[in-house]
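Researcher: Next sequence.
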Amino acid sequence: MERILTRVMFAARWVMAPVYLGLTAGLLVLAYKFFIDLFELFSHVTHYNNEEIILHLLSLVDFVLIGGLLVMVIYSGYENFVSRLNIDGANDELSWIGKMDVESLKNKVFVSVVSISTIHLLGVFMESKSIPNDKIIMYISLHVCFVLTALLMQLLERLSKNR
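Model: Next structure:
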């Protein structure tokens, strides 16, 4: 009975495979939206002022950061929880594959969230004339929470490695 239960539990990791496929589909949606926004920027560039162009470019940077985050989560999650990626040349092209454990993935996620939050906060400051002060304070507070959480996660990881 224990052997059967162990095999079933071990095989249950494959339940996550469709989840990673779903994230891959989300990556395709993100890429589609990126190119729609890029096309909009190019088609209206003569009508935008400098601040509007910068805000559009920051939005595109957001897409890139989120896309990179999705790629890390997809590959690392699949490798850590489902199965090894046995793809010729993958280790040469993507040196981090197979080396990122759950702890380092969490840290990369938090650093990415802080980066994305920073970009959003920069966008808020650029539009600060049209945003109420209480909302700006809320955005700053949320960003500070993200930064503190990322720092705390780094500190906890270092403490756990030193033990």
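Model: The chain has a mean pLDDT of 84. The two ends are 37 Å apart (CA to CA).
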